[in-house]
Write a structure and sequence with these properties.
The complex is a heterodimer of chains A (219) and B (724). With 219 residues, chain A is α/β, with parallel strands linked by helices. Chain A contains five helices and eleven strands. Classes of the chains: A alpha/beta (219), B alpha+beta (724).
Chain lengths: 219, 724
């Protein structure tokens, strides 16, 4: 799995992501600056968390206009894998690669704590190493994780079985239908708010996030 | 144009004697810009004029100290060729006027002090003091400060891993916001601020300069009064996104050999950075302000030299590397401008629009800076606490204490701070006595904590100063790490009052004794004086930030008990209730003497505990501090979600709530073996109970509290306070 980790100014979880990728893939990901325009050599493109461009406009809105996002769209059109976590998920929705939007948390406060996620389906490249229906732990750290979409879109996501993960221990950010992550219709794009990449080491509290990367390694 | 005279100097914070010295050094009436430069360089904030004579008494050396006080931050050897670079700094005055931006820029400023030396910041901590929680203003300040710390730290991607919070009416008009950053660098890639190389370009990078923060350093050097609200324009506005770019740009530039010297523009901005860089290097500096990137039009030399606009750095580069440096800085979308060069004149010359706006000989600006040995009045030794008694049963007292603002869970606060970014946080907030952050790519980790007990300091500043140091040392030892060094943040009232200066001198004396006894030198620090509003001072608060190292992060222990653990208290329990939280919360008194400090016992007990932890025999450990033994045990039970049956025969409040020092609670599988080892080492130790699966905290027939009841009491305060 040849992997690119995209670097927008203000992204800050790229090193966490690289650690998780390295561990599961046994290969070094390549850091790709947001002004690059070609991702043709990669199988997987990861957009990590952070505050791209400070998130001073809507979260991810500026990054969605960066040159590299055209290449991400080409990559997605080719059926390439895309993983967007936290700010990465926000960027994917702003770029129109996933539906809906991530609004300010219902509490209007930043939320940093572990959450439990339920695996809605495990027949995907991102979740094959989890049991279907499994519940796993993942740290979250976001101010804008309140997933929102119109009823029609939400019904379609449910109807087409595109909800990837749901919050299983309380919905802290107000996300519609407890949605923590969603897939594209071809199941090649995953966006999620919590950070499985920060839980891949027993010393740091567990390895609940590792199966996601192991799944990709086996895809 | 303002007339430069003694009256204007006074409004800039220079007294008549200091202004006379300025005239003497200049040999003429200074220009407005020159007066501005003198006034900020000679402000308390920049010159340490009241505190320097005392700070010299602190021990600053040890074989592992690479750079002590005098650089932007302290630097210590943490093994494997790596260095930890750290400092704590106050942003008290701005945080009261504008809590969000005051706290946010406090975090930004201390981050720059650390990455300017070549370190990647890996952890932030803080030490916060607020006023009476029943006042609306306190709630507003707490909310703004917490959001500000989170807003800045979360965005720059540095985990906030620890801190402390106290409440006391003495902070009603003067909250304390002390922010600490810890970074790591290779020992052979540490960057200093001394300028060198006549003709070398002086380069400005970062944000543009605006009119914000002019005279911020002067504001931080006066008392507050009712007009303080009018000082809001001197509070700077932070931009953590630009800071993040600045971190990455500087670290990338530091991989090259372009940099001769580098310093952040903090308090007093361009003035202090250029004066200090040239002064330390024994060279001169010429600035041409026309080239300074400006956010506003029509800025004068005076305004540019005194602006405290954030997220800016000043560099001296090798001329042949300047273009390469420009490419790196501009890749990160930051401003880059050559604004001057190094000279051999020993002077700072500032030109703007073809006019020399300032021309000052650097040596006397530094050497003749005011230095005061201000009168001190000793704090009267407090009378020992007489007999005290409460009819409340132990369980009820525990529930009341653990729900109080000073002892309740800080979850509401740290849940707003990203503590996991970076992927190295081994022990998060409240999981252990010190945060544990691993060094990426190694098994090694740093142990980090901040500590101070101001209610002890106000009663006996010398004992309180020592206690702040020993508690920090204990908190690191209680994880299994070896304490290495500290940074201090001295928060006091008006130094022109002898009783305040007496507190300061005594606190330093106590700290120095503790640092010496524990081989725990001070490598950096900050002094914040004039923390008074309407003539009322804060509690003396010498906040300590400490760093330790553990070679194998997997050996670090936290607080969480497991069923089957036997609980042993290490250290002597005499039942000292003077100045305790029990006395304040249960009897409503702030009286007596703080607990005695026995530095030899601290050292012996801490070394013993650390060795036990590193031998792998300890499942959990917690030092005994605020609230005493029963509070420590309750916190361990909650952390492990595990019941505890207490069996120690003593049922006195003094035994369970006394705040005797040099104590730890250890959770082990084999208590008799631990007791034997302690006896052999001559250390008092006693088994006090065991963890079990009962789901309750019990003691014979005096305590029976379910864990949910205990947890509800502990977690209630902050969410209830901030409930809509």
């Amino acid at each position: 799995m040849r992997t690119a980790i995209l670097l927008f100014p203000g992204i800050n979880r790229e090193r966490d992501m690289a650690i998780a990728v390295r561990q599961s893939f046994g290969a070094e990901p390549k850091m790709v600056w947001h002004k690059e325009t070609d991702l043709s050599g990669f199988d997987l493109v990861i957009i990590p968390g952070g505050f791209s461009f400070g998130d001073y406009l809507r979260c991810g809105a500026m990054a969605a206009q960066s040159p590299v996002m055209r290449a991400v769209k080409d990559h997605a059109a080719r059926g390439g894998y895309v993983l967007g976590v936290c700010n990465g998920f926000q960027i994917l929705t702003e770029a129109g690669l996933l539906p809906g939007a991530l609004l300010r948390n219902a509490s209007l406060r930043f939320l940093s704590m572990d959450t439990m996620l339920k695996v809605e389906r495990n027949d995907t490249a991102f979740a094959s190493k989890y049991e279907a229906g499994a519940i796993f732990r993942a740290p979250m750290a976001h101010g804008d994780g309140n997933y929102s979409a119109d009823t029609e879109t939400l019904d379609r996501l449910e109807g087409e079985n595109l909800v990837a993960f749901r919050y299983a221990d309380g919905n802290r950010n107000g996300a519609a239908r407890d949605i923590a992550g969603i897939y594209s219709p071809n199941l090649r794009i995953l966006g999620l708010m919590p950070h499985p990449e920060d839980l891949v080491d027993p010393l740091l509290g567990g390895t609940d996030g590792k199966p996601l990367f192991d799944s990709l390694a086996a895809a | 144009m303002k007339k430069v005279d003694a009256a204007l100097a006074k409004s800039f914070g220079l007294n008549a004697e200091e202004f006379a010295k300025v005239l003497d050094i200049m040999g003429r009436t200074p220009t407005l810009t020159e007066l501005g430069i003198f006034s900020v360089m000679w402000s308390e904030h920049c010159s340490y004029k009241s505190s320097r004579v005392w700070l010299k008494e602190l021990p600053t050396k040890a074989p592992w100290v690479i750079h002590g006080p005098g650089e932007n931050a302290g630097v210590i050897d943490i093994g494997e060729g790596m260095a930890a670079i750290f400092k704590m700094e106050s942003h008290n005055h701005p945080s009261f006027i504008e809590p969000y931006q005051g706290a946010a820029t406090g975090v930004g400023g201390i981050l720059r002090d650390v990455f300017t030396m070549g370190a990647r910041p890996i952890a932030n901590l803080n030490a916060l003091r607020f006023g009476d929680p029943s006042l609306p203003v306190t709630k507003r300040v707490v909310d703004g400060v917490v959001r500000g710390i989170g807003g800045y730290g979360n965005c720059v991607g540095v985990p906030t891993v620890g801190g402390e919070v106290n409440f006391h009416p003495a902070y009603n008009g003067n909250p304390l916001v002390n922010a600490m950053t810890v970074g790591i660098a290779a020992q052979d890639k540490i960057f200093l601020s001394a300028a060198a190389g006549v003709g070398n370009p002086v380069v400005y990078i970062g944000s543009k300069t605006g009119r914000d923060g002019i005279h911020g350093a002067t504001m931080a050097s006066t008392e507050f009064d009712a007009s303080s609200e009018e000082k809001r324009p001197t509070v700077q506005v932070g931009d953590p996104f630009t800071e993040k770019l600045l971190i990455e740009a500087c670290l990338e530039l530091m991989q090259t050999d372009a940099i001769v010297a580098i310093q952040d523009m903090g308090a007093a901005g361009l003035t202090s950075s250029s004066v200090e860089m040239a002064g330390k290097g024994g060279v001169g500096i010429e600035l041409v302000l026309d080239s300074v990137p400006q956010r506003e039009t029509g800025m004068t030399a005076y305004e540019m030299m005194l602006s405290e606009s954030q997220e800016r750095m000043l560099l001296v580069l090798k001329p042949e590397r300047a273009e390469m440096a420009r490419a790196i800085i501009e890749k990160w979308d930051l401003d880059y401008a050559i604004i001057g060069h190094i000279t051999d004149t020993g002077r700072i010359v500032v030109k703007h629009k073809g006019v020399v706006e300032a021309d000052i000989l650097l040596a006397p600006l530094a050497d003749q800076a005011p230095l005061y040995r201000r009168p001190t009045a000793p704090t009267p030794k407090p009378a020992p606490l007489g007999p005290v008694h409460s009819d409340m049963d132990l369980g009820a007292a525990l529930l009341k204490l653990i729900a109080s603002p000073d002892l309740c869970s800080r979850r509401w606060i740290f849940d707003q701070y990203d503590s996991t970014v970076g992927g190295q946080t081994v022990k998060r907030p409240a999981q252990a006595d010190a945060a544990i952050v691993r060094l990426e790519g190694t098994n090694r980790a740093l142990a980090l904590t901040t500590d101070c007990t101001p209610r002890y300091c106000v009663a006996d500043p010398e004992a309180g100063g020592a206690q702040a140091v020993v508690e920090a040392w204990r908190n690191i030892s209680a994880t299994g790490a070896t304490p290495l060094a500290i940074t201090d943040n001295m928060n006091f009232g008006n130094p022109e009052k002898p009783e305040i200066m007496g507190q300061f001198a005594a606190a330093i004396k106590g700290m120095a004794a503790a640092c010496t006894a524990l081989d725990f030198p001070v490598v950096s620090g900050n002094v914040s004086l004039y923390n008074e509003t309407e003539g009322t001072g804060i509690l003396p608060t010498p906040a300590i930030g400490a760093v330790g190292v553990i070679e194998d992060a997997a050996k670090a222990v936290g607080l969480a008990l497991k069923p089957g653990h036997e609980l042993v208290v290490i250290g002597a329990s005499k039942g000292e209730l003077g100045r305790s939280l029990w006395l304040r919360e249960i009897l409503g008194q702030e009286a007596g003497a703080p607990p005695a400090i026995d530095l030899a016992a601290e050292r012996r007990n801490g070394d013993f505990v650390r060795a036990q932890i590193l031998s792998g025999k300890v499942g959990a450990c917690h030092d005994v501090s605020d609230g005493g033994l029963l509070v420590a045990v309750a916190e361990m039970a909650l952390a492990g979600d595990t019941g505890v049956a207490l069996t120690a025969p003593d049922t006195s409040h003094a035994f369970w709530f006394g705040e005797d020092q040099a104590r730890y609670v250890l959770a082990v599988q084999d208590a008799p073996a631990l007791l034997a080892a302690a006896a052999e080492a001559g250390i008092p130790a006693a088994k006090i109970g065991h963890a079990d699966g009962s789901g309750k905290l019990t003691h014979s027939d005096t305590i029976a509290i379910s864990l949910p009841q205990l947890r509800d009491a502990h977690e209630r305060f902050f969410p209830a306070w901030f409930a809509l």
